[in-house]
Amino acid sequence: MALLLGLLMPCAWPAQAADGFSLKDMSGKTHTLADYKGKWVLVNFWATWCPPCLEEVPDLIALHDKRKNLIVIGIAMEYETDKEVSDFVDDNLISYPVVLGDDKVARQFGSADILPTTYIYNPQGQLVKMQRGLMTRQQMEQLTAGQ
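Above: the chain sequence. Below: its structure as tokens.
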């Protein structure tokens, strides 16, 4: 039983991510956690072929566009070409910054071995949640409702 709890415990707590991150989006702009002090930050790892990832995209767009105290940064993983991601972003009218991800980018956060994976930072820059798998808009709004 103790072994089972030991295996499950890491899933119950947010992953220990680095104190910050530095990401260059597809437009060439660099984003750091410190840039968004005072705002909620949702960093979402996704892939164009991933059905639950695609289900989250409209909710992420809506939150990013609607909430002035929240920023979404998408990190595309497991893609074949930059153009594939660029076309997907254009076709889906994604309004938030998108980063072309790789292992180096993922290591800044600790893990993104399951897609989607979302890291949520509070306005003080502290990691408050790491969610593996689909996250609903209601969950996102509940987690980012307070200061």
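The beta strands are 22-24, 30-32, 40-46, 70-76, 98-100, 117-121, 127-132.
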